[in-house]
Amino acid sequence: MEGYETLLVRTEDGVQEIRMNRPEVLNALNRTLKLELQAAMKAASRRSDVRVVLLSAEGRGFCSGQDLNDEETDGRRSIGESLRTLYNPLVEAMVGMSKPIVAEVQGVAAGAGMSLALAADMRLMGESARMVAAFSRIGLVPDSGLSYMLPRFVGLGRAMELAMLAEPIDAPAALAMGLCNHVFPDQGLHGAAWDFCRRLADGPGRALGLTKKALQRGVELPLREALQYEAALQEQAGHAGEYVEGVAAFKEKRKPVYRSRD
Ligand code: T3D
User: Fold this and answer.
1) 67 CA to middle of ligand 1, Å?
2) Residues 187 and 213 occupy one common structural domain
3) Rounded mean pLDDT of the chain?
4) Which of 201, 223, 241 is the last residue in one of the domains?
5) Residue 258 domain-assigned?
6) In this structure, is residue 56 part of a structural domain?
7) Span 42-53, pLDDT tens digits
8) How many domains does the chain have?
9) Residue 127 has pLDDT above 80, yes or no
10) Are residue 184 and residue 240 in the same domain, yes or no?
């Protein structure tokens, strides 16, 4: 375990679990949690023994968004400033990290909590989990990347409805819309999330980091530029030991080994 006030962090088998730990408020994001998440993501990015990040949460909810008791809510505070200094750097640290991030969503992911789940690269949900774009319920607009992510996942029309009506999206619906990758029984979710992350950690870490970049850019770029970007990334991957090992393993009819297990 590493020393944070609002996070529990442990690293095992190349996976670092960053676990939000304010269960009494369904992991609402107070200032400390936002700063610690930002610091933990940056630290995970730097550590060579961390190949995959699992973003999880303690208690019955993943994250209920902004802590509505932590800041003034009388309409005078600059929420823009709060986003620019606390939320946006966190989302950018996650999206920019050249390692896979998996969000394990149990219970509710609401408001900025849903944004954090969508900022991860993949999402696993418990069967009773739900996402709520709760912003409009309190007279706000989608933030922390939700306005960017949601239409990319579900299309513009659906995103409008989800953001405006802020109805809960249950796990089967989230799966059907592409908002999550897999749904597991609630009791088995955490074990399944670790197994999923271990499989990623066994993969070619450098190539997976480049894959993340390629797909992120792929949804933005015109075809010709996407092809050029792929070629540039493949040039990097093709000069790395992982490629040599992958091809050698194929020829020797064995499983490739991409990380040391000591
Ligand atoms: O800086 C900025 O402000 C900009 C950022 C904005 C980004 C945002 O995230 S805006 C959206 C903020 N979030 C919300 O509006 C969600 C508020 N919460 C809820 O609507 C509900 O709590 C949930 C739908 C998330 C869950 O409902 P339920 O029935 O499962 O649980 P509950 O009983 O409502 O909550 C349990 C406890 O957590 C409760 O405390 P208590 O009564 O047991 O002492 C509740 O007050 C507390 N809690 C839940 N959400 C928050 C919270 N406390 C502070 N802030 C919260 N967001």
Assistant:
1) 7
2) no
3) 96
4) 201
5) no
6) yes
7) 999 999 999 999
8) 2
9) yes
10) no
Ligand 1, CB within 6 Å, residue ranges? 25-26, 28, 64-69, 71, 79, 82-83, 108, 110-112, 132, 134-135, 137-138, 140, 143
Residues 114 and 175 occupy one common structural domain: yes
Which protein residue has the closest C-alpha to ligand 1 atom 13?
Answer: 65
CA 168 to centroid of ligand 1, rounded, Å = 14
Structure tokens at 147: 């306005």
Distance between CA atoms of residues 166 and 125, nearest Å: 19
Query: What's the CA-to-centroid distance between 22 and ligand 1, angstroms?
Result: 12
Whole domain around residue 58: which residue ranges? 7-201
Smallest CA separation from ligand 1 atom 11, residue = 111
CATH number of the structural domain spanning residue 232? 1.10.12.10
Give the Å distance between the CA of 34 and the centre of ligand 1.
15
The answer to whether the predicted template modeling score (pTM) of the entire model surpasses 0.90 is yes
The rounded distance, in Å, linking the Cα atoms of 11 and 52 is 10
- Give CA separation, 210 vs 11, 196, 205, 222, in Å: 22, 19, 9, 19
CA 67 to mean position of chain CA atoms: 20
* C-alpha angle 48-49-54 in degrees, rounded to nearest 5: 110
